[in-house]
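Q: what sequence does this backbone want?
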């Protein structure tokens, strides 16, 4: 299984996605940018190098976001995704057909590579509605503002597979109504991990 990295780069509330070129596999599919881990590299070093090679930009890898495993007809990959901060440089298309900055709510409109789909789905679920639920858990909007720097840690409390099946955390129609547990880690403690195979 080949280990690859992927970057979730966000700017002004939008996420960078890239479309693969004709002849690449899977061609014309959209993806989170990144690439193959080379011998002696850490995943973070790999991602910084790949983003520099693919786009000519400088980045800083921040925190681990999730993992997706998928077996294509030609290769099996283990994709490690990280949140990435854009530091500088003008984006160039060295390896892709095109790039787009899109709002998380628009991600479902694009045809992503199978290995990327679980990570894209997870990111799309981090919506304003979820943030409002987390703000209720924090106790008040003011407390949430002070706590918002720990968004990544808050996301790690949520089991996204369980969340999708439930549809929402609890009953009621207002953001702060219904069954949000006072100790969510007992119920929402895992990051998404997938193991899929191409049929």
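A:
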């Amino acid at each position: 299984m080949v280990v690859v990295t992927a970057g979730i780069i966000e700017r002004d509330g939008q996420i960078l996605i890239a479309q693969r070129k004709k002849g690449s596999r899977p061609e014309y599919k959209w993806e989170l940018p990144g690439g193959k881990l080379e011998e002696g590299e850490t995943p973070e070093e790999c991602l910084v190098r790949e983003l520099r090679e693919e786009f000519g930009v400088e980045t800083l890898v921040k925190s681990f976001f999730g993992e997706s495993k998928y077996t294509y007809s030609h290769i099996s990959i283990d994709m490690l995704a990280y949140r990435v901060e854009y530091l500088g440089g003008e984006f160039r298309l060295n390896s892709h057909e095109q790039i787009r900055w899109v709002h998380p709510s628009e991600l479902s409109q694009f045809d992503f590579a199978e290995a990327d789909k679980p990570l894209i789905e997870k990111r799309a679920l981090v919506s304003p509605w979820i943030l409002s639920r987390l703000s209720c858990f924090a106790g008040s909007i003011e407390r949430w503002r002070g706590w918002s720097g720990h968004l990544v840690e808050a996301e790690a409390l949520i089991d996204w597979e369980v969340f999708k099946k439930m549809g929402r955390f609890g009953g009621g129609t207002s953001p702060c109504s219904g069954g949000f547990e006072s100790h969510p880690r007992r119920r929402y403690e895992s990051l998404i991990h997938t193991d899929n195979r191409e049929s």
